[in-house]
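[Archive record]
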Amino acid sequence: QKNSCVLPEDLKNFYLMTDGFQMTWSVKTDDTPMPLGSMVINSVSKLCRLGGSSMYTLPSAPTLADLEDDTDEEGNGDKPEKPHFDSRSLIFELDPCNGNGKVCLVYKHAEPVVSSDTEIWFLDRALYWHFLTKTFTAYYRLLITHLGLPQWQYAFTSYGVSPQAKQWFNMYKPITINTALLSEEADSFVNKLDPNKVFKSKNKTPVLKKKPPSQPPGSQKSHTSMTSSKTSSLAGS
């Protein structure tokens, strides 16, 4: 009501279920927990609008609209038209990204009437826009599947993630960071099973029949003595 716009249906249903979302996870290095993943959706009270106020408290300080680069290519080919910091767009911060940029909910057409057509964009630290998804639901899935790894949003930019972030990706999301390799070699991440080798028949070794167990020494002696006694009695007769 304050900004005279209606939330998209999927985001409205999300806020009806929970007022924001935050999940962090850590890894242990030398038995010391180190914060790593962070997944954040700002609450309604923190769903602040960008571009409406000055960046500084000084008089006549520049706003984001003053710093916007109008020379950037927009709407060429398959590239969607980028958002604007002036009155042409309404931009709300969904995720501060730990200072690495901002994930924003963008109403791209605010003049003369605010359209319900929204998109999710990533604003990097150099104030360049990068398109993420058309809907909040699709972005939420991206957030979960990327595990909230540091700078994961930069995987959708032309310059990619930093070398440090790439190490975390190689450890926890190797397929995501190696999409080029996956497209070139479709079987590179697939376990290959050759049934001919696995179920190959082997030459069975013949099983030797077990010999009957030998008699105890005592019974053998008694049997020998009985035989010798019978032989001597036959010789005498």
The beta strands are 21-29, 32-41, 49-50, 90-95, 102-107, 118-123, 129-133.
